[in-house]
Amino acid sequence: MTHKPRYEDPTIKQHHTEPTARRSPWVKLGVLATLVLAAVMVFNAIPKGFKTTHEEIGTGKPAVVFVYDPNFTVSNAQTEQMNEARRQIGDTALFLIARVGSPTGEEFRSRYRANSAEILLFSPSGQLLERDRAVRSAGNIIQWLQSAGANTDGDAR
C-alpha cells in the first residue's frame, strides 16, 4: 500500500492565511497600544517623590516635614497620606521628608528636636507652628496646612 500525498489546493490555503496576514498589523498595533497605556497608568500611579532638603522652608509656602524612619511601618502609611494631600492641593504647600540616618535628616532632627515618625508644620515664613505623631490623614494634613496660612504666631506645640 502506497500512501499518496494529499493534494492541497493553494487557493484554500491562501484564503486561510490572508485574513490572518491582514489582521496581524492591527493585532500588533493593539498590543503596542495596550502596553503603552499600561506603562502610562503605572507611571501615574507611582507616588511623586519627596525632597529631603529643607532649605525651601520659609520661602512663602507652608511646609509639612515628616521624619521618615524606614524601621517604622507608620512611615509608609504617612507618606501615602502626604501624597494624597499633595494630589488634592497641588503645589500650594511643601511636602518634605527628613530621613532618619541621613546627614540632612539628622541635622533637621537636631535643629527642631524632632523624633522619628513625627510630622511638623511650618508657616509660610518658616516658623514651626505645630508637631504631631504619624499617622495624620490627608484631610487632616490639608486642614493643618490651611490653618498654617492664617496662624503666624509661631507657637509650636
Describe the protein's architecture and organization:
Helix 2 (74-89) packs across helix 4. The protein has helices spanning 10-45, 74-89, 103-112, 138-150; strands at residues 63-68, 94-99, 118-122, 128-133. It is of the alpha+beta class. A four-stranded mixed beta sheet has the order 2-1-3-4, with helices on both faces. It is built from four helices and four strands, in the order αβαβαββα. Helix content is 48%, strand content 15%. The radius of gyration is 29 Å and the shape is elongated.
Protein topology:
Elements: H1 10-45, E1 63-68, H2 74-89, E2 94-99, H3 103-112, E3 118-122, E4 128-133, H4 138-150
Gist?
The chain is an alpha+beta fold.
Radius of gyration of CA atoms, rounded to a whole number: 29 Å
| Lateral arrangement of strands in the main beta sheet | 2-1-3-4
The percent of residues in helical segments reads 40-55%
Q: Write down the overall mean pLDDT.
A: 80
Main beta sheet: strand number and arrangement?
4 strands, mixed
Structure summary, number of beta strands:
4
How much strand content do the residues show? 5-15%
Topology as a string of helices (H) and strands (E): HEHEHEEH
Instruction: Report, as a whole number of angstroms, the end-to-end distance.
Output: 101 Å
The parts where pLDDT drops under 50 for at least 5 residues are: 152-157
Structural class: alpha+beta
Helix segment tally: 4
**How would you sum up the global shape?**
elongated
